[in-house]
Design brief:
Layout: E1 2-10, H1 16-24, E2 33-40, E3 51-57, H2 60-68, H3 70-82, E4 83-92
Antiparallel strand pairs: 1-3, 1-4, 2-3
């Protein structure tokens, strides 16, 4: 199994809810995507990222399929427009 973790800082933290809903909407639409969790930071710490995505995927191949899947690709422009910083970690468990 693969964990795919992405964190974003946004221009406007109010966009978190819209992005969360779009990302959560990917569940059940992409083969190999086992679980998706999207969290919004509540700390108001300047060092904190505003939101995080934690996704469980069946394999590295499933992660690659997720990356190029049209449903995922449709969310990317929204996130790119809203984000000012992004961090990613992918690892096998």
């Amino acid at each position: 199994m693969v964990k795919h973790i992405v964190m974003w800082k946004l221009k406007n933290k109010a966009d978190c809810a819209i992005i969360r809903d779009k990302l959560n909407g990917l569940m059940g639409k992409i083969p190999g995507l086992l679980k998706i969790e999207v969290g919004i930071d509540f700390s108001n710490n300047d060092a904190a990222f505003h939101m995080v995505l934690v996704a469980d995927l069946e394999s590295r191949e499933a992660l690659e399929a997720y990356r190029i899947h049209p449903e995922h690709q449709a969310v990317i422009p929204l996130v790119q427009t809203a984000a000012i910083d992004r961090a990613v970690v992918d690892y096998e468990i």
